[in-house]
């Protein structure tokens, strides 16, 4: 990966997200700021309804915050038309959602190739190489419905990594996996961070929290940094957003 002049691949500044459904108004995010450096793994924890999925959607540019900004890989992704957000997401972000990111009528390999086709130029790694890395080389011609739960999780990860993203965002990536597959997926996330990716995962899993350098707790739309669990050396300080570029 080329050298970069900035360390924080993901910066969110003062995010608000307001929902209105009929008479009902919900402030799902109330001024959330965070940053994730290259090579860092951050876990986001918190009770159901705290705003975790809303936060992840805003970070991924799948949703627009009502206020605040998101910068990814030095580029602002928030407050742009949806097509532009999709283009930036394809290039800079890998997304693993609870609803899996596989198209049912395409083979595993063609799912990866489809993701790669969304970005101009040659992919950094061939689909076959990526599938070998997640242990699915032999299953590349399988359709999603022919995969086991663990294989589906790994295929989803291969799609998320299709374009060597600077930022990897995952919503409960190990939620329905058995212990062995969970460890495998977590190790793969950790490996990506070691390769310089900024990894942010929403999770309830104690195992997943253990691989994180830092833990951010969301409660009722507000974030507090609770400090790392010692996976690596990152300190427990809450780092301020100093600037935003792009
Ligand atoms: N599209 C939406 N329309 C209305 N309210 C929503 C929508 N998405 C989320 N919410 C509300 O925002 C709050 C946070 O939801 P969510 O981000 O899904 O929480 P979590 O992922 O932490 O369980 C909840 O009160 C939820 O009902
Ligand atoms: Mg959620």
TrEMBL record:
Similarity section: Belongs to the ABC transporter superfamily.
CDD domains assigned to the protein according to its UniProt record, in alphabetical order: ABC_MJ0796_LolCDE_FtsE (cd03255)
Full protein name: ABC transporter ATP-binding protein
Region (Disordered): 222-246
Biased composition (Basic and acidic residues): 237-246
Segments forming domain ABC transporter: 10-245
UniProt keyword rRNA-binding present: no
Any GO molecular function: ATP binding
SUPFAM superfamilies: P-loop containing nucleoside triphosphate hydrolases
SMART domains with a match to the protein in the record: AAA (SM00382)
